[in-house]
Amino acid sequence: MVSLPENNVPWPPPQIAPYLRDLAIDDAWYSGDKTKLRTVYALQGYDNGTGDLRDERGRGWRFWERPRPIGRRDNRLHVPLAADIASTSADLLFSEPPTFTVDNKETQTRLDQILTEGGAANTLLEGAEVAAALGGVYLRVTWNADLAQRPLLTTVHADCAVPDFAFGILTGVTFWREVLREGNTVWRHLERHEPGRILHGLYEGTQDNLGTAQPLTEHEATRDLATSLGPEGNEIETGIKQLTAAYIPNMRPNRRFRGSQWGRSDWQDDGIRDLFMSLDETYTSWMRDVRLAKARLMIPSGMLQSEGPGKGSSWDDDKELYAEFNAPPTSGEGLTLVQFAIRVQEHEQTWKALSRKAVESAGYAAQTFGLGDSTAITATEVVSQERSSMITRDRKGLYWLPELGQMAEVMLAMDRQLGFSSIEVERPRVEFGDSVSEDPKTTAETIELLARAQAISTETKVRMRNPDLEDTEVKAEVDRILKETGQLVNDPTATGAEGPGTPGFGQGGEEAN
Fold first, then answer.
1. Does 253 sit behind a cis peptide bond, omega within 30 degrees of 0 on the bond before it?
2. Could you tell me which residues are beta bridge partners of residue 50?
3. DSSP line for 65-104
4. Strand (E) positions, 405-459?
5. How far apart are CA 159 and CA 134, in angstroms?
6. What is the pTM of this model?
């Protein structure tokens, strides 16, 4: 087993430094923070003798590479398309929460309670959005009996973790967070997950050095952990064999770090990042046209009122009479209105083209982002037009399925181990919900066509209309429909039953007509 890091080691670890630098670019686009964008794209320039600053390759500055103007406002704008892509990716995956199913009824009831009370649906939405932005996300199972009588499912971002993989399987991971930064001093809390145990450490160091280990009681952020640690002083035995953390990649392979187990973000490709930069430049140019289009008056000096020596001149826009001067009305020697045109059509077409190309390069259909035809269409047509988005969703879902089942099993095991319940631990079966729900009109038309062809039973009709109904609810609804239509018959095989048996079914198991 790997323990916590030694004192005074570089941090973050040098072996993941290139990966973290690349994540910093993804994070800058995701956050929409203009300061972060300027920082990650800052280049050392030089003067080529003409006053034109260029980068070390002799290439002119690109949009976010340009230094911030000194002494005046930075009018560069940012379009949050990257954040929209990440959010849409999460919605496609988990807008309808996945279902977790086990065979044991008591276990199923407890699992539903854990997931519902813990807000697992929101946690998965958050995790999927972060994964799309940073190339992956970690799910972590923790607990705090004072806060909740159940295990807690949380997410950890990929740029705050040092993972260990063996044959593509996560065998351990160290999470870290800064709990205090004062000047050059940085306090970090490290949390290492291994099969059967979780280790905690508090370090006082610098920005690039982990520093020395300190007692957990030295900072309020880790003080409560000290009471739950084992005899070793820095670890907690989980009592289960499974790892209490999992890594879900957004998509693989990682094209920049081939051979690694890290996933790649939706915009890792430089071509997509360049499109983001061009989109920001287009919007900035558009808003510059708006600023320049403000009406301005060119006023002859004879119409200005002197305010005295050294005080300049002013113009009274309420004054109606000036000294006459000999000039025709069309000479332009009077007041001149200057107002530049706003190139709306050119900017809008450029914006749409750049946005469309960016989302398509990221693996999504333009219609998903409202960049296609706005005509009202059915859910079936939506799926047809957004096929690339559905393919990307299904591809990402393949990475989520096994890890969701594993984490659900770990939560059940920890729930039993911690004494919150005595349920039988099972590995749940996980199924994703539909990202596009069929509209009621289309469903009704489908049911009607099948009924005309006598190719559908009443029970199937009810299930098609509302797939979320439980078996008992379906049975009751079928009962009501058949009773209203006079088709309900008693089950002749039922003994001592006062009411109907299996609703709508006669001898031989065929539905009564």
1. yes
2. none
3. GSPPPSSS-------THHHHHHHHHHHHHHSSPPEEE-S-
4. 429-431
5. 8
6. 0.78
What is residue 246's three-state secondary structure? Answer: strand
E strand or H helix at 31: helix 17-31
DSSP class of 374:
-
Residue 5's φ and ψ, nearest 5 degrees, are -60, 155
Instruction: Read off the pLDDT of residues 61-72 as tens digits, 9 standing for 90 and up.
Output: 788 888 877 878
**Structure confidence at residue 455 as a pLDDT band (50, 70, 90):** confident
Half-sphere exposure (CA, 13 Å, Cβ side) for 66? 13
d(CA 289, CA 343): 7
Q: What is the pLDDT of residue 187?
A: 96
Mean pLDDT of 24-30: 95
Over range 418-441, report the average pLDDT: 83
Judge whether 155 and 123 are in contact, CB under 8 Å: yes
To the nearest 10 degrees (0 to 180), the angle between helices 440-452 and 458-465 is 170
pLDDT digits (tens, 9 = 90+) for 257-283: 998 999 999 999 889 999 999 999 999
